Amino acid sequence: MDRINRGDEPVVFSLSEDDNEMSSAIELANKTLVDFDEALKFSENQNFALKIRYDINDKSEHIWAVNIVKSDEDYFGIIDNLPNSEINIKLNEKVKIEKEKISDWMFSKNGKLVGGFTIRVLRNKMSELEKEKFDREFIFSID
Predict the structure, then answer these.
(1) Parallel, antiparallel, or unpaired: how do β-strands 2-6 and 9-14 relate?
(2) pLDDT value at residue 98
(3) Residue 142 lies in a domain
(4) Is residue 37 part of a domain?
(5) What is the DSSP letter of 102?
(6) In Å, what is the CA distance from 80 to each residue of 9, 45, 90, 116?
(7) In this structure, is residue 56 part of a structural domain?
(8) Looking at the 3D structure of the chain, how many domains does it have?
(9) For the segment 14-60, what is each residue's pLDDT rounded down to a tens digit?
(10) Is residue 103 within 8 Å of 51, Cβ to Cβ?
(11) What is the residue range of 76's domain?
């Protein structure tokens, strides 16, 4: 697992494009997107976010968008983290999210993470110290 330190920004963890666990997590997120859509309808759920795949040359970067709304079949959100690559998006920019570009989803229910399949894969690959730091800084608890 690669770690990218960015000064005052959180450390970015990444895996190779062919990591089987990450590929499975992305596949699961796509198969269960209907659960995310259903949860959007209920006010007790909060902090809706979608992870978007941006293709850059022969690689991909995945970036979270928050404040998700769905209108008909279209998703919209606000970019929530700085890209590592030269992508034509900016932090806090409102974007339309293409369904086929979604690589993960998450929201919180009673303070607990729901979804976040790629987050769970990355967390499982962290050292114990990295997990402790991540858990202190992450806004939801993870079962």
Answers:
(1) antiparallel
(2) 94
(3) no
(4) yes
(5) E
(6) 12, 19, 9, 15
(7) yes
(8) 1
(9) 556 677 898 999 999 999 999 999 999 887 778 999 999 998 887 88
(10) yes
(11) 2-137
